[in-house]
Amino acid sequence: MKLYIKYMVSIRCKMVVKAELEKLGLTYGVVEFGEVEIADKISSEAREQLRNELLKSGLELMDDKKAILIEKIKSVIIEMVHYADDKPKTNFSDYLTEKLSYDYTYLANLFSEVTGVTIEYFIIAHKIERVKELLIYDELNLTEISYKLNYSSVAHLSTQFKKVTGLTPSFFKELKKKRKSTSRNV
Q1: Please, which residues bridge with residue 5 across strands?
Q2: How many other β-carbons are positioned within 10 Å of the β-carbon of residue 155?
Q3: 28-61: per-residue pLDDT in tens?
Q4: CA-to-CA dists, residue 134 to 66, 81, 144, 167, angstroms
């Protein structure tokens, strides 16, 4: 049996979910972003208890099929952008269609209708957040970051970064360096 959990977007969220399942004595298998495979049927009492405990951590057990699909879309995108080492060489629409077994037009229309933003915007926002992380870590240069995140060029990455943040990647990096040096002197 699968349970679907809203806002489960980080490794810490997975840890919280596992801990709550263990507290309730539920046997689970795979715990992915947004979903958990439970070995046995779960009683309505245990389900309600799990729902309440997850809410305390900012997570939400879902029942609505459309909401579940939206969370699956978000989870696939977040996992792909933030955690996958090898980015898909196909475009995102084909990747989502393949992963979720739904027509991309249906996914895109549903996502926009429910969230108020397009899948493309959601992907771009997460890619820019990932670029920020990589710039802050200072382990990769812009060329390496653009390759890692499957941008066609550094110019494309820079243009998208500026459009979203209002800053160039170089300026963003300098701001972070200045903030670090200022905080050390305080």
Answers
A1: 61
A2: 11
A3: 888 888 888 888 888 889 889 999 999 999 998 8
A4: 33, 12, 10, 16
pLDDT in tens, 94-118: 989 999 999 999 999 999 988 899 9
Region 139-155 average pLDDT = 90
Task: Copy the structure tokens of residue 173.
Answer: 């990096």
pLDDT at 184: 57
Contacts of 147 (CB under 8 A, 6+ apart): none
Only one residue has tokens 């696939």, namely 76
Residue 179 or residue 83, greater confidence: 83
Q: What's this model's pTM, rounded to 2 decimal places?
A: 0.69
User: Residues of CATH 1.10.10.60 domain(s) within the chain?
Assistant: 65-186
Where are the CATH 3.30.70.100 domain residues in the chain? Answer: 1-63
CATH topology of domain 1-63: Alpha-Beta Plaits (3.30.70)
Bridge pairing between strands 60-62 and 35-38: unpaired
Which alpha helices (DSSP H) does 4-137 contain, by range? 11-23, 44-56, 65-78, 92-100, 104-115, 119-137
Overall CATH class of domain 65-186: mainly alpha
